[in-house]
Amino acid sequence: MFKSIDILTVVKSKFSFAYYVHYFIVFLVFIVLVLGYLLLTAPIQTTQFSNIQQLASMGQYPQTQSLASSLLQQPQINKQQYFRLIRAFQYEQRAIQHYPALDPEHRNR
After folding, report:
1. What is the dihedral of CA 67, 69, 72, 73, to 10 degrees?
2. Averaged over 28-40, what is the pLDDT?
3. pTM for this model (two decimals)
């Protein structure tokens, strides 16, 4: 009886609550990374595919258009590639300058 209590106190002193908390946090981080990887490698949905088709037909953003056209030639598009395309589109959208003289609305005035 006394030996089992001694062993139990030794085990409790070696493995405290903080010991388990650290491994639990590492486990949670690992799970989040694995789920993130699985979600990024999943194929895109039909609405996202139609967005890629629209971007491939837009002539206003030539770099985004070429990237979207190259994605459409692939047999399967995953979400990581789709998000890269959307990020490139937003970057090009911010970087492009609109000149009023080239705008069709201002030509008629």
Report:
1. -100
2. 97
3. 0.68
